Automatic annotation (TrEMBL):
InterPro entries: GNAT_dom (IPR000182), NAA40 (IPR039949). This is N-acetyltransferase domain-containing protein. One of its GO terms (cellular component) is nucleus. CDD domains: NAT_SF. Its main location: cytoplasm. One of its GO terms (molecular function) is histone H4 acetyltransferase activity. It comes from Allacma fusca. The keyword Ligase does not apply. Keywords: Acyltransferase, Cytoplasm, Nucleus, Transferase. Pfam families: Acetyltransf_1. Residues 35-181 form the N-acetyltransferase domain.
Length: 230
């Protein structure tokens, strides 16, 4: 489905940065992402991560990375400052070892915006998606030789996932995750019955903007529940 999950988190469409500027966050699917924006995401990823990939067992394979980022399941949150893209997350609604998850494939920021809180805001938005859709957790992969990235994710509550390779396996990455923490007051079959209280990286978020049953939200946003015909 191409439905915009930001309808579950309307307040996340705008973010007041630490320097006083205001960022606008937009959602794109692989199909709705313009060639110009796709080129920018790939360029930013290359600038930020090429050396990291080269040091890993995976190596740097730009054609494979582009193919991954243009798959139908790929979704993007892109933050703009004055209509200029400055940060993005590539994510998917996915199954991970029998868990229904938001899988964060990438979170990349331009160097000049890395102290504005945008990374935390994008991760908070993914956490709200996971909680609103009643998914189990947010999952991501981080290189062991990326201490800055590890430190960021640790700071916002991510820990080594049960699926992460053991140390003796010699892998160059950790799999980190953060369980979805939510508390529903009142019948949980409808958001509109009572406030949905979601505990995220940025504190407590109240979601009250939907009357649709949670089962229907899953149908709209989660591939497992989408029936296709051929």
């Amino acid at each position: 489905s191409s439905t915009d999950p930001l309808t579950l988190a309307e307040s996340c469409r705008q973010y007041s940065c630490k320097d006083g500027s205001t960022a606008t966050v937009k959602h794109f699917t692989a199909n709705s992402l313009s060639s110009k924006l796709l080129k920018w995401t790939l360029d930013l990823l290359t600038r930020n991560m090429r050396s990291m990939y080269k040091k890993s067992s995976w190596g740097w394979k730009p054609k494979e990375k582009k193919a991954e980022m243009t798959e139908d399941a790929a979704r993007f949150l892109i933050a703009f400052l004055d209509d200029t893209p400055v940060a993005f997350s590539h994510f998917r609604f996915d199954m991970d070892y029998s868990h229904e998850v938001v899988y964060c494939y990438e979170i990349q920021l331009e160097e000049h915006v890395r102290t504005l809180g945008l990374g935390r805001h994008l991760m908070t938005t993914l956490e709200i998606f996971a909680a609103a859709l009643n998914l189990d957790k947010i999952v991501l992969t981080v290189f062991k030789h990326n201490p800055e990235g590890i430190g960021f994710f640790r700071k916002i509550g991510y820990n080594v996932d049960e699926s992460s390779p053991e140390e003796n396996e010699g892998k160059s990455y950790f799999i980190l995750s953060k369980p979805t923490k939510l508390r529903l007051k009142g019948p949980d079959s409808f958001f509109s019955q009572k406030k949905l209280i979601i505990h995220t990286t940025s504190g407590i978020y109240c979601l009250m903007n939907s009357r649709m049953p949670r089962s229907q939200h899953k149908f709209l946003y989660f591939p497992r529940y989408v029936t296709t015909t051929h």
